[in-house]
Amino acid sequence: MRDFLLSLLLNTLALWLVTQLYGGLFFAHGSGLGDYLLAGLIFGLANALLKPVLLLLTLPFNILTLGLFTLVVNAVILLVVAALTPLDVRGFGGALIGAILLSVISFGLNLLIGPSDRHRAR
Length: 122
What we know:
Elements: H1 2-21, E1 25-27, H2 33-57, H3 59-64, H4 69-84, E2 87-89, H5 91-113
Antiparallel strand pairs: 1-2
């Protein structure tokens, strides 16, 4: 449960940071913490459930592009999140740049937090 809550908070913080740094992703004026938490939850669920299926379906493209097609899959995930939440995305290009920023920020936040209990050496 702790890992789930930590993941939710990190996703929410990463989404908030991206919306503050990049104009291609934004929440409507007056959106509150609940909107960000909802988007973080949907983003985490989409990454856990939808992303593996999309990566499997696009495996030939990923192999041909040496993994760069994963950026397109990440942009599609972000567009799905935007369709289900108050998050707005300015086109596919906005989703692509937003997905890249989101990946970099999430990576940085995960480095700051460190490994979870289940990943630590015993």
